[in-house]
Amino acid sequence: MQYRNLGPTDLTVSTIGMGCVTFGRELDPHSSLLVMDHAFQRGITLFDTAEAYAQGASERVVGEWLQSRNTRDKIVLATKVRGSLTRQRIIASAEDSLKRLQTDRIDLLQTHHWDQTTPLEETLDALTTLVQQGKVRHIGCSNYSAPQLKEALALSETAGVCRMISVQPPYNLVQRDIEAELLPHCAAENIAVISYSPLAAGFLTGKYRRGAAIPSGTRFDVIPGHQDIYFTDHGYQVLAWLDEESRRTGQSHVQLALSWVLKQPGITSVLIGARNTNQIDQAMDAVK
Which domains does the chain show, CATH number per domain? Predict the structure, then answer.
């Protein structure tokens, strides 16, 4: 496992991070703890969750793991605040997350999405208050476009608020929009990029085929909105190419798709989701 600095901070994170979206949703609490145990044993130090994941269940499971395994000081803990990003909402959300996570601090608090209605200065001022109180160490954003990130960074220069040190976008062989503007800007501004969905929500594993029924309980069944992103002519063209590469190299679809993201310049850490320990091991094989 390799480790990299989280943007301009003194925190280091593993190049593969544990995305905790499945905990408490597709995966029961006991199984979630075992997956986190295995991830930590394999060298993963970044654990990323959100209040939105299973309506807080993911944070509660992660909090149980932190306490029962005494791992809080050994990992970088990231979570997110969703919805309306008013001052009152952010402060209340952070307090609730701290309780569910059973900790007194969050290493990286991220806004889950851009808020079209709340003034950005109000959002950043609330996040800054949490940093000043010692409840949050650093702030970042998820699902921001390059212009949105630029606006936030510019405001930090003029309004005396904390600077976002990371962005969390989707990135995989199908969804590569960030290459045009976001990745170059992050490189220029020393912003960490924590990418997610390297397997395109499971599409790049090869188990989804054009016209075939969607397996019950899979990500595309649980969140049908993913279908509009990946079940396209472009998506199936990429999948056909991946089929060919898998036959040519003898490597699995998972290994090829994940290793491709890991090798892209400007990526600090790649978040993976897992329903069992074997999927953690698959990710480690991709590192090699």
Answer: 3-203+252-287 (3.20.20.100)
State the burial class of residue 98 (Cβ atoms within 10 Å of its Cβ: 0-12, 13-18, 19+). buried
CB-based burial of residue 231 (10 Å sphere; 0-12 exposed, 13-18 middle, 19+ buried)?
middle
Residue 262 confidence (pLDDT) above 70: yes
pLDDT above 90 coverage of the chain, percent: 88
Of 15, 14, 17, the closest CA to residue 47 belongs to: 17
Q: Do the strands 3-5 and 12-14 form a parallel or antiparallel pair, or are they unpaired? A: antiparallel
What distance lies between CA 171 and its chain's CA centroid? Answer: 10
Please, are residues 162 and 130 in contact by the beta-carbon 8 Å criterion?
no
**Residue 208: pLDDT over 90:** no
Cα separation, 74 vs 82, whole angstroms: 26
Q: What is the pLDDT of residue 221?
A: 66
Q: What is the pLDDT of residue 215?
A: 74
Could you list the active site residues?
53
Query: Cα-atom radius of gyration of the chain, to the nearest Å?
Result: 18
What pTM does this model have? 0.94
Per-residue pLDDT reduced to its tens digit, 224-251: 777 778 989 999 999 999 999 999 999 9
